[in-house]
Write a structure and sequence with these properties.
864 residues, 27 helices, 22% strand, globular, binds arginine, binds zinc ion
């Protein structure tokens, strides 16, 4: 059942052109596909086309219908036997978009037809060689009843007209050869925003954004973001858009974030619609970043695509890196870096430690949709970032130019990308390539010893060593080529360099099991500041005391290290409260934090981030054998002491940040962020509950409204309930806003949580067929309501499993996402594990379980 990367075979046929004629109907959509096929080389194998859930109506070659012995059809394939080396194959088949609840292929989203073909959805539309290395030029005629006014497909419109009194058509042509996963069709009635963009070389591009009726004003920000992304890609990479028209359609039913179909992106409406009243600063940020991500795919993904799906990170890691760089330029480098590091630590490290562990270029896949992972995407982006760090911005740009020079119009591999990068540098990247084949999170350990010589000179010797723990998929690990940003500082903040000159431009390369360097100083107190800017996707073990951590905060050059030092300090405090519950955090620590606050009082960006206590999920990554309620109680106890010990400082910050008229600018974002972080701390003190209520009442934007509601999670139940009820009454009509309300309810740590979730699932706006709703209720519970999901009696696991059994029959892709926390039992204490495995067993024994769930559940149960 599994496919292996090593088994790749070039295609036996090529398909130069695809002509599709699609007559839309909810239950009887007719697809006529005309393919010009050429045999590759001298073989006599049949032409095998993929098909899934299709019913074949007719098949002919060069106009002559095939007889029964010239083809065979099964559930998953159509084989055609012919001796011709070049021929035109015409296939007619019927599909039923209305019945398609898996949201793969052609389906109906709230009345509009739309498609999702990546990874293997095109085979649910028609029979085809559904693999990314088949590149064809598409011509698509969309036919529909006139009650469906807008008919869209990839490329440029070339014809339109009437078929008869009730039916019309539009014909589209996309001149760029593309794999079928980039095919798209959309048909419906939308509001349309239009704009245009002129590229540096003077090409005029029409921009069109399609949104649900009545939502036009919520599309403005997305369109502006698109223009910023187009400009940025020209400025930074010299890449221009290549068609006359760029269309984006927002739909409500969508499995993922968005899809980069050539010239016709389809988006989850959550990543398009945004305005001050209904969207938070994070929502605006996400809209801009996803719009840019899909746009950037036009070069990294579409013009140069993947040879096979094992190479997914070729386009995704690279495109995520590009969108991260864009966001950093549009907003702030530091908050972006922190945001992405949080994703790595909370989710990617957890994946590495689980049965789903895989390298950024996987070796073995059962269901491709299961590999759109934080490893392929986010660790993939970290690997690209390391190229960027090692080659520098100019070297990286040379490598990218060479990549496009060599591979424009091709379907290629990660090795092709590496080789283009290699051509742009004198560094030998051979060992670096291991990042593509080795899974797991490397741990970098720092050891420091001193020796004083007769003249009073202190010789400091530092050893950095690396070790990657075995993962479920790979027992043996080899040393990686790791760029480690490093500073050595003393208590006054003076920085030192090593005698061996291994530190170059603030970076060492750790490539063996360990390396050593020495520093001479007059003081015995030097602090190694390691992994600046998170220069590699690794964990660090650096045994520093509180003093050293505070020194880093005070004096390190790298703001990421400064933030991280505070995170480490907080992690230590939580650990103390786990080991001795009820103990008090020492005054030294509080006064250190107070000094830090005073030092940064005017830098609200860093200050805000430094006041965030590591999430439960992040804390899990530096622990094993986790007893959830003990860790959760310790974290909560620390938060409570934090609020009490720093009440005066917190209040001072809170009062200093005055409420201004809303604007979406970086300084205003920093202010709102900092103020809301502080409010969440103060909300733990009953005397400040009124601040939460008053912010809720007076807020003129969703960031502050939601900030108040999140804070209210720490207030009394009655306050929380009353604000939530008001919020629902105000926003009942807006499903995207209601998702936030769903999620807040689902993450409440309350005894009546299951009654609450059942109530949410019965809400008139809830539907199991809508992935956004399911993710905000069931997903939020499983991923972020740690105490209730991990209740020791197993009730949380059972609740989620019961739901997944139903959901899997409707939408397996979404079910397979939400099962993730259940499959990650390895980190938890045995009293949790027993229950988790029991529920996984129920899933595995279920008749008719999807491939998606089967792969994750069976791997999880096989891992010990
Ligand atoms: N290529 C899309 C993106 O990253 C994601 C599509 C994934 N779809 C899926 N069914 N797995 O922008
Ligand atoms: Zn992508």
């Amino acid at each position: 059942q599994a496919k292996r990367r090593a088994d790749y075979q070039p295609p036996a046929f090529s398909i130069a052109t695809v002509d599709l004629h699609i007559t839309l109907h909810p239950t009887q959509t007719k697809v006529i596909s005309t393919l010009s096929v050429t045999r590759s080389g001298a073989h006599i194998n049949p032409l095998v086309l993929d098909g899934d859930n299709l019913s074949l109506d007719s098949i002919s070659i060069n106009g002559t219908p095939l007889s029964d012995n010239e083809y065979t059809v099964t559930d998953s394939a159509l084989s055609v036997v012919t001796e011709l080396d070049e021929f035109v194959l015409e296939i007619t088949n019927t599909i039923a978009p209305e019945q398609n609840k898996a949201l793969e292929g052609l389906y109906l989203s709230g009345g509009a037809y739309c498609t999702q073909c990546e990874a293997e959805g095109f085979r649910r539309i028609t029979y085809f060689m559904d693999r990314p290395d088949i590149l064809s030029v598409y011509t698509v005629t969309v036919v529909a009843d006139k009650s469906v006014p807008m008919l869209l497909a990839n490329g440029n419109p070339v014809d339109k007209g009437e078929v008869n009194e009730n039916t019309h058509f539009v014909k589209w042509h996309d001149p760029h050869p593309k794999p079928c996963y980039l095919f798209a069709l959309v048909a419906g009635d939308f509001d349309l925003l239009t704009d245009s963009y002129t590229t540096t070389s003077g090409k005029e591009v029409a921009l069109e954004l399609y949104v649900d009726k009545g939502k036009k004003s919520q599309g403005v920000f997305a369109l502006e973001s698109l223009k910023r992304a187009m400009k940025w890609d020209e400025d930074v990479f010299g890449l221009e858009y290549d068609l006359d028209i760029y269309m984006i359609v927002a739909v409500d039913f969508f499995n993922m974030g968005a899809m980069e179909n050539k010239g016709l992106n389809v988006f989850n409406s959550k990543f398009v619609l945004a305005d001050q009243k209904s969207a938070t600063d994070d929502d605006f940020f996400n809209v801009e970043s996803v719009i840019a991500h899909e746009y950037f795919h036009n070069w990294t993904g579409n013009r140069v695509t993947c040879r096979d799906w094992f190479q997914l990170s070729l386009k995704e890691g690279l495109t995520v890196f590009r969108d991260q760089q864009f966001s950093a330029d549009m907003t702030s480098a530091l908050s972006n870096r922190i945001k992405h590091v949080r994703v790595m630590r909370e989710h990617q490290f957890a994946e590495d430690a689980s049965a789903m562990s895989h390298p950024i270029r996987p070796e073995e896949v059962i269901e491709m949709n299961n590999f759109y992972t934080v490893t392929v995407y986010d660790k993939g982006a970290e690997v690209i970032r390391m190229f960027h760090t090692l080659l520098g911005p100019d070297g990286f740009r040379r490598g990218m130019d060479e990549y496009f020079r060599r591979h424009d119009g091709q379907a290629v591999t990660c090795d092709d990308f590496i080789s283009a990068m290699q051509s742009a540098t004198d560094l030998d990247l051979t060992q670096f390539t291991r990042w593509y084949s080795q899974s797991g999170t490397p741990v970098i350990s720092v050891a420091h010893s001193t020796e004083v010589d007769d003249d009073g000179i202190v010789k400091h010797s530092f050893t950095l060593s690396q070790h990657t723990p075995a993962t479920s998929d790979q027992k043996e690990k080899l040393p990686l080529y790791i760029p480690v940003n490093i500073e050595i500082i003393d208590d006054e903040g003076n920085s030192y360099t090593d005698k061996e000159s291994l530190i170059k431009n603030g970076m060492v390369i750790l490539k063996d099991d360990s390396m050593r360097f020495t520093v001479e100083a007059k003081t015995t107190r030097l602090t190694p500041v390691v992994l600046g800017n998170f220069s590699a996707p690794a964990k660090v073990e650096n045994p520093l005391g509180t003093d050293a951590l505070l020194t880093i905060f005070k004096h390190a050059n790298d703001p990421f290290n400064r933030w991280d030092a505070m995170q480490t300090l907080y992690d230590r405090c939580v650990k103390q409260l786990e080991e001795s519950p009820g103990s008090a955090i020492s005054n030294d620590i509080w006064s250190g934090i107070k000094q830090a606050i005073a030092q940064e009082k005017n830098n609200l960006e860093l200050l805000g981030e430094c006041l965030v206590i590591p999430s439960f999920e992040t804390l899990c990554q530096s622990r094993s054998n986790i007893k959830v309620s003990a860790l959760s109680k310790a974290r909560k106890a620390f938060c409570n002491q934090f609020a009490r010990a720093l009440e005066k400082e917190l209040l001072d910050i809170f009062n200093r940040i005055e409420q201004k008229a809303y604007s979406y600018t970086q300084s205003a974002i920093n202010e709102r962020r900092c103020k809301n972080v502080v409010l969440a701390h103060l909300a733990r003190l009953p005397q400040h509950e009124h601040k939460v209520v008053s912010q809720f009442d007076s807020a003129d934007n969703m960031t502050d409204t939601l900030g108040a509601l999140r804070s209210a999670q720490h207030c009394s139940n009655s306050t929380f309930d009353s604000l939530m009820a008001q919020f629902e009454a105000t926003w009942n009509h807006d499903p995207l806003v209601l998702d936030k309300w769903f999620a807040l309810h689902a993450t409440q740590n309350r005894d009546d949580i299951f009654a609450t979730i059942t109530m949410l699932c019965e809400h008139p706006q809830f539907a199991m067929s809508n992935p956004n709703r399911v993710r905000s209720v069931i997903g939020s519970f499983a991923f972020y309501n740690s105490e209730r999901f991990h209740a020791v009696d197993g009730s949380g696991y059972k609740f989620v499993t019961d739901y997944l059994l139903k959901l899997d029959a409707v939408n397996p892709q979404v079910a397979a996402r939400i099962v993730t926390p259940l499959t990650q039992w390895q980190g938890y204490a045995s009293e949790h594990q027993v229950h988790m495995k029991q529920q996984l067993g129920r899933l595995l024994n279920h008749k008719g379980l999807s491939k998606d769930l089967f792969e994750k559940v069976s791997k999880s149960l096989a891992y010990d």
